[in-house]
């Protein structure tokens, strides 16, 4: 996602987070189907959601792109998150997630294709994504988008595999 800009697909818009998105993120992460494969597998607290929104904005200013809100083009409703995170080791990692009501409708493929194309324009090579091996839907999305398993138990975490895609 570009600073003060949006990444758009035919049905989705990825835009910078706004402060009022924190509550929607908390509601999204309240669903166990969402939070079980993200970070520590727990729901997102109000404080952590607000911090995520603030840090995402800081990354947009610092790097020109980062993570943001995924909204339905038709309604403007927040249904997920997506973009590029920086996990602390200097790498950039593609991240995404959608509300379960929007799974199995091709939106994940649409979103991931747009993120891959954006990564190409920024020269991010290889693209990296980590995923819990039990998150079969996400593994399939990554493989469909040309990602390959690079390391099981990434960084010593048995519940985290690293996938790479060369541009």
UniProtKB/TrEMBL annotation:
Task: Locate the transmembrane regions by residue number.
Answer: none
Q: Which residues form a coiled coil?
A: none
Q: Which domain of life is it from?
A: Bacteria
N-acetyltransferase domain segment(s): 12-167
Q: Which CDD domains match?
A: NAT_SF
Q: Which InterPro entries match?
A: Acyl_CoA_acyltransferase, GNAT_dom, N-acetyltransferase
PANTHER family recorded for this chain? GNAT FAMILY, PUTATIVE (AFU_ORTHOLOGUE AFUA_3G00765)-RELATED-RELATED (PTHR43792), N-ACETYLTRANSFERASE DOMAIN-CONTAINING PROTEIN (PTHR43792:SF16)
What is the designated name of this protein? GNAT family N-acetyltransferase
């Amino acid at each position: 996602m570009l600073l003060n800009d949006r990444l758009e697909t035919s049905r989705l818009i990825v835009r910078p987070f706004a402060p009022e998105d924190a509550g929607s993120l908390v509601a999204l992460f309240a669903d166990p189907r969402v939070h079980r494969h993200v970070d520590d597998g727990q729901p997102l607290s109000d404080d952590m959601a607000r911090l995520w929104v603030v840090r995402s904005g800081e990354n947009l200013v610092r790097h020109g792109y980062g993570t943001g809100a995924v909204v339905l083009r038709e309604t403007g409703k927040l249904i997920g998150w997506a973009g590029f995170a920086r996990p602390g080791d200097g790498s950039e990692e593609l991240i995404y997630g959608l509300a379960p009501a929007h799974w199995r409708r091709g939106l994940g493929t649409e979103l991931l294709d747009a993120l891959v194309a954006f990564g190409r324009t920024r020269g991010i090579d290889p693209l990296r994504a980590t995923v819990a091996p039990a998150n079969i839907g996400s593994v399939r999305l990554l493989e469909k988008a040309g990602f390959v398993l690079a390391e099981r138990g990434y960084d010593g975490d048995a519940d985290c595999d690293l996938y790479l895609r060369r541009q």
